[in-house]
């Protein structure tokens, strides 16, 4: 790995059941960088996250994480996390599991443990609902608690799989601003997958744009361009800037492709 890199994905390809899912994915993240992993359903976002986590072995290439000497080098917020509203678990209880949920037995209470939990709850602005049942919280509140759970051991890398799905616009803006602040405060690299890049534009240092199992990475201005996206999709793509917005459309000759792009929210974004 190059000096300063926390995550290095080098020419990584993944095949599942004989089918190619990802091909020659290549990008890296440095400490404190915020990266959006953007792509439609089926583009390979979750597979890439699972490969970085080590759940799937790449068929070629490599994935390397610099732990910085930490045992908990990666934090993870999954796409689906079922929370029973009747489960007698408070928000602070779930955050505390991030400290010792991998150990057998009931953890003994201690002032140090509670202090760490309280500090993490405060960091994500969740103190006011820390003692409420986790299943009774709103979607945005639950995301804050899940982020606190993933970050309490101060990992070097935080992976989030579609954390903005099913949140209202206010909650989305709040979660993105929170993640940006924490990435800088903790110097944790953040890789967040999403369909729509719009909410992430003010936060992203770089983008990894997935299509058909391939990726383009770099700054938003460098990636969301006609020549780059045309090569990525394998047919002509127009990138049009109108009143500070970017609209990505397929060429008229590609009727099927145009329809697919028009219905894919990932292709409309405002670039700062």
From TrEMBL:
SMART domains: AAA. PROSITE patterns: ABC_TRANSPORTER_2 (PS50893). Keywords: ATP-binding, Ion transport, Nucleotide-binding, Transport, Zinc, Zinc transport. One of its GO terms (molecular function) is ATP hydrolysis activity. Residues 7-237 form the ABC transporter domain. InterPro entries: AAA+_ATPase (IPR003593), ABC_transporter-like_ATP-bd (IPR003439), Metal_Ion_Import_ABC (IPR050153), P-loop_NTPase (IPR027417). One of its GO terms (biological process) is zinc ion transport. Belongs to the ABC transporter superfamily. This is Metal ABC transporter ATP-binding protein. It comes from Acidisoma cellulosilyticum.
């Amino acid at each position: 790995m190059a000096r300063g890199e926390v995550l290095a994905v080098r020419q990584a390809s993944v095949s599942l059941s004989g089918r190619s899912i990802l091909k020659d994915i290549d990008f890296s993240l440095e400490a404190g960088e915020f990266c959006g992993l953007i792509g439609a359903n089926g583009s390979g976002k979750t597979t890439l996250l699972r490969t970085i986590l080590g759940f799937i072995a790449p068929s070629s290439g490599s994935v390397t994480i610099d732990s910085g000497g930490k045992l908990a080098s990666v934090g993870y917020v999954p796409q689906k996390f079922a929370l029973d509203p009747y489960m007698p678990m408070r928000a602070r209880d779930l955050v505390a599991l991030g400290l010792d949920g991998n150990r057998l037995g009931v953890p003994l209470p201690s002032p140090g443990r509670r202090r760490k939990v309280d500090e993490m709850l405060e960091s994500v602005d969740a103190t006011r609902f820390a003692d409420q049942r986790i299943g009774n919280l709103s979607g945005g509140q639950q995301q804050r608690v899940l982020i606190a759970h993933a970050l309490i051991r101060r990992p070097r890398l935080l992976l989030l799989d579609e954390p903005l799905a099913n949140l209202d616009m206010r909650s989305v803006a709040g979660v993105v601003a929170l993640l940006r602040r924490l990435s800088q405060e903790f110097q944790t690299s953040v890789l967040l997958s999403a369909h729509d890049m719009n909410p992430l534009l003010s936060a992203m240092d770089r983008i990894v744009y997935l299509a058909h199992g391939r990726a383009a990475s770099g700054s938003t201005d460098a990636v969301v361009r006609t020549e780059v996206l045309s090569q990525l999709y394998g047919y002509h793509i127009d990138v049009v800037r109108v009143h500070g917005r970017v609209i990505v459309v397929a060429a008229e000759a590609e009727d099927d492709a145009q329809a697919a792009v028009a219905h894919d929210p990932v292709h409309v974004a405002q670039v700062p």
